[in-house]
């Protein structure tokens, strides 16, 4: 398998999260795949790093994507960031995603890391998910 389904998976995850009214209210629409070039909002979610491994077998071509979604905020404390992270986890727990290419077999929460960024008041929570996809 190759990286061919990566764009379709990212697009589907982005659209799925963006369509959620609760998450959109928490973020005021600040969901990105690149940090905004101007001053970023006080709180935003960044669809970031990804690792992909071949998971093809005799039944067909497939891959496992390890995705990182980061909640970044300069709000005092972690509570606001944790509320957003929790909502993302709810939305990506067995999501019904339609991909432009291939299909999502399953998606799992893998782990999270909450930390303060050195040197300033920024807090960051990195959420890691695994997605199993098959090419159609």
Sequence of strands across the biggest β-sheet: 1-2-3-5-4
**What is the radius of gyration computed over CA atoms, rounded to a whole number of angstroms?**
15 Å
Query: What ranges have pLDDT less than 50 throughout 5 or more consecutive residues?
Result: none
CATH A-level architecture? 2-Layer Sandwich
The helix/strand order is HHEEEHEE
Domain count: the total is: 1
Largest sheet: 5 strands, mixed
End-to-end Cα distance, whole Å, is 12 Å
Number of DSSP-assigned strands: 5
Walk me through this protein's architecture:
- With 136 residues, this protein is an alpha+beta fold.
- The chain has one domain (6-74, 96-134): STM4215-like, CATH 3.30.2000.
- It is built from three helices and five strands, in the order ααβββαββ.
- The chain has helices at 6-18, 21-27, 79-91; strands spanning 31-32, 43-54, 62-73, 103-116, 123-134.
- The chain has a five-stranded mixed β-sheet with strand order 1-2-3-5-4.
- A hairpin with a 6-residue loop joins strand 4 and strand 5.
- The longest helix has 13 residues, at 6-18.
- The chain is elongated.
- The N and C termini lie close together (12 Å).
- The relative contact order is 0.24.
- The mean pLDDT is 93.
Q: What features would you highlight for this structure?
A:
single chain; 136 residues; alpha+beta; STM4215-like; 5-stranded mixed β-sheet; 3 helices; 5 strands
Q: Could you write a compact summary of the structure shown?
A:
With 136 residues, this protein is of the alpha+beta class. It is built from 3 helices and 5 strands; from the N terminus they run H-H-E-E-E-H-E-E.
């Amino acid at each position: 398998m190759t990286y061919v389904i990566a764009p379709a998976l990212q697009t589907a995850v982005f659209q799925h999260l963006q369509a959620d009214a609760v998450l959109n209210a928490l973020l005021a629409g600040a969901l990105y795949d690149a940090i905004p070039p101007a001053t970023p909002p006080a709180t935003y979610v960044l669809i970031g790093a990804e690792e992909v491994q071949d998971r093809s077998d005799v039944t067909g071509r497939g891959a496992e994507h390890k995705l990182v979604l980061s909640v970044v905020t300069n709000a005092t404390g972690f509570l606001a960031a944790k509320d957003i992270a929790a909502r993302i986890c709810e939305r990506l727990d067995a999501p019904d995603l339609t991909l432009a290419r291939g299909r999502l077999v399953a998606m799992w929460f893998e782990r999270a890391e909450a930390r303060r960024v050195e040197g300033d008041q920024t807090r960051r929570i990195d959420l890691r998910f695994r997605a199993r996809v098959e090419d159609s």
